[in-house]
Amino acid sequence: MEDVEKPELLAGYAIIKVRAAGVCATETHFVEGLIPVGTPLVLGHEIAGDIESIDTAIKTSLKSGDRVDVYNMMSCGDCFNCRNDMENMCTQAAGQLGFNADGGFQEYVRVPIRSLVALPANVSYEEGAVHACSGMTAVHATRLAGTKIGDIVGVHGVGGVGLMCIQVAKLCGAKVIAIADSEEKATLAKEVGADDAIVCSDYAALPEAIKVAAAGAGLDVIYDLVGSTVGWNAMVDSLACRGRLVIIGYRKEDMLDFYPVGMLLKEGHILTSVAGCKRDLELSLRYADEGRITTIVANRVPLEMVNEAIQLIIDRKVKGRSVITTP
Ligand SMILES: [Zn+2]
Ligand SMILES: [Zn+2]
Q1: In a domain? residue 302
Q2: Which of 87, 133, 198, 266 fits 277 for a cystine, CB–CB 3.0-4.6 Å?
Q3: Separation of 74 CA from ligand 2 center, angstroms?
Q4: Which H or E element spans position 232?
C-alpha cells in the first residue's frame, strides 16, 4: 500500500469516488506475470462509485453525485470493432482500467465518460462492481454461445463468473449442470438456480457423471471458467453433437491439447469469449435491478487489506466475489 496523487480531471473524463472494487481471478494473472504490467499500476477493473467531478463540456445525462458502474475498457466508440459490437476488442482504446491504466484499488479513479454506466437504483455498489466483470462476462459469453431454450448447459467452475453464467443460462431457458471443486460451491451453484451440481474430484470420471446428470444426453453449451488441459479434455468428451465449448478461463502453462477426431465426429464448436461489451454490462445490471439475477458478494474487504483479498483468490478460498470497499 502506498499513497498516490488524486487523479486530475481531463477533457472527456470524470473522477469517480470509488465505493466498491471487485477482486478478480485475473488479479492472480498479474501477480504471476501471465499478464505483463509494464509500469507501477493500480489494479482493480471492477469498479462502482459516485461521480465526484465530470467534464461538463461533454454531452451526457450523467452529472456529479450520480451513482455509476464502470466499463473498464476505455474504448474509442469509433473504430470498426467498436461500431460492430466488438467494443471489447477496440483497436484504438485509450487503455483498460486496472490492466494498463490505474484502476479501482484506490479512493479516486479517472474514467472516460464514455465508459460510465448509470448504476440502477436496486443495485448496490458492491453488486455493481461484480457485474462490471462477472456479470458482463457471463452475458457476453451467453450471447456468443447462443444459449437457448431447451439447451442442456454445463458450467465448469463456480466462482464469480460461473455463478453468473448459471443464472444467465437459466434466463435463456436452459437446464444447467454446474461442475464445482467442492461441496460448498456445488451448494452455492444450486442456490443461484443450477438444476444439478457435480463435485468433481476425478476428471477421468467426470464425463460419465455429466452423462448421468444430463439423463444420457451431451451438453449443448459448456462455459469453461477453469482453463485446465485435463478439464478441457473432459468437457470435449461431454459435448453434445454440435455442442459449443466456450473458453473463458485460462491458466498459466495449460494448453488446449486433444486429438480432434472425437470432436470432429460430433461437429463440436470451440468458442472463446473475453470480457464483454458495454451493452452486456448494461443488460447484466438490468437483470440485477429487476431481481432476476442474484449477485453473490462473498466478502467486503477494506482497501487496506487488498493484498490479503488477492491471496484468498490464489488460495481458492473465495465463494462468489470479494469486493474492496472504501468509505
Ligand atoms: Zn474481473
Ligand atoms: Zn474502438
Answers
A1: yes
A2: 87
A3: 9
A4: helix 229-238
Ligand nearest to the CA of 78: 2
Contacts of 59 (CB under 8 A, 6+ apart): none
In a domain, 263, yes or no: yes
CA–centroid distance, 89 to ligand 2, in Å, is 7
Evaluate whether residue 66 is within a structural domain: yes
Amino acid at 160: G
Q: Looking at the structure, tell me whether residues 90 and 175 fall in a common domain.
A: no
Are both 77 and 160 inside the same structural domain?
no
Per-residue pLDDT of the chain (327 residues; tens, 9 = 90+): 899 999 999 999 999 999 999 999 888 888 888 888 877 899 999 999 999 999 999 999 999 999 999 999 999 999 999 999 999 999 999 999 999 999 999 999 999 999 999 999 999 999 999 999 999 999 999 999 999 999 999 999 999 999 999 999 999 999 999 999 999 999 999 999 999 999 999 999 999 999 999 999 999 999 999 999 999 999 999 999 999 999 999 988 899 999 999 999 999 999 999 999 999 999 999 999 999 999 989 889 999 999 999 998 888 777 778 899 987
Q: How far apart are CA 158 and CA 189, in angstroms?
A: 7
Cell of 302: 477494506
Q: Which ligand is nearest to the CA of 275?
A: 1
Q: Is residue 282 part of a domain?
A: no
Quote the pTM value.
Answer: 0.95
What is the 263 CA–ligand 1 centroid distance (Å)?
Answer: 30
* Ligand nearest, relative to CA of residue 28: 1
Q: Which ligand is nearest to the CA of 137?
A: 1
Output the CA 258–ligand 1 centroid distance in Å: 28
Q: Based on the fold, state whether residues 193 and 104 are members of the same structural domain.
A: no
Range of the domain at 51: 13-119+296-325
Q: What's the domain count of the chain?
A: 2
Measured in Å, residue 26 CA sits from the centre of ligand 1 at 6
